[in-house]
Amino acid sequence: MKIKAIIILIICSVSVLVSCKKEEKVTKVKDKIEIDKKSKLDSLAVLYKTNNKDNTEEIRITTYGSIENDKYFLAGDKNFILVSQYLKKGNDFTLVKKDTLFSNKFTYTRIGNESFQKATIDNKEYLLLSVNQTEMGNAVTEENVAFIMLDIKTLHFYKLDYTGEPTLRSKEAIDGEFIENESLNSKPEIKKVLYQFAHKSKWVFHTSEDQDHYTNYVQKWEADNNVSNHLANGHSEVSDTTYSTYYKDNLFKFTGNYEESESIENNNFKIVSYFRGNIIAFDKNKKMYFPIYTETCVTGCDKKIKFITENSIEVKYYEYSPYPTSIINLDQIIFKN
């Protein structure tokens, strides 16, 4: 009996020792997590702060993920924008409330220069800011802008989204549309101010009223041919029937640097194939420009062109294998004007 008791005591002692070591290991891991959290907070960049009249309350807008030399440009694996409310206790401000205004992952994020404007509605003070999102990598061409209106007192905020993609006619703006936010319908004054703020943004493109204007030639060509050749990777298919429009304005110059682009020329036409872009022609007899084919991509749609007869060209994609080839007869293009 004594031997059994001794064995049991030894087993228990070993169990206690093992258990203590496990507990010690868990504690160390927990401490590491807490340190990581602390370093995250230390990495927050203050974008904006405002105090009330008697300096008893402070609102701060901060970000995590900002690059080293520009706190308004976020490029981390995780990005977020925080709003925090502080109340003064003695000589120090103490955090009493915080919320996440915006967050994303693996996305280039820019805070607009027009941000941090103030607006007053029914004696309530609001803060406005704009946030542009561009996906990292080549898989997505779409961009998004969020226009945010923050109630400084309650930290409640409203959001209006605008989405689209950069196009030739829009230049640095995004050619797109607003996403209807039904929750704003119950707040007409806030909705009005948000839209006014958004329409002044450099990221929102305002279309020309004249859809036949030469700056809208890509959109007209796509509408006439019932296509939308905007791709991330790959290329479009050239259809058997092509519709186009003549323009007096210089489409070569508008489309880009045509002198450094792929070009061919004969007695009747000069034709330019822009890098991963459109194919534009100048009719020497009519003294008019017209799009033969419109297409944009991040990679995969660059085209080589050559004359195979006086009035027909071969279009060959060459970035990927196999390399598809199409023949376009310029005499068979149907013009809308």
Automatic annotation (TrEMBL):
<protein>
    <recommendedName>
        <fullName>DUF4221 domain-containing protein</fullName>
    </recommendedName>
</protein>
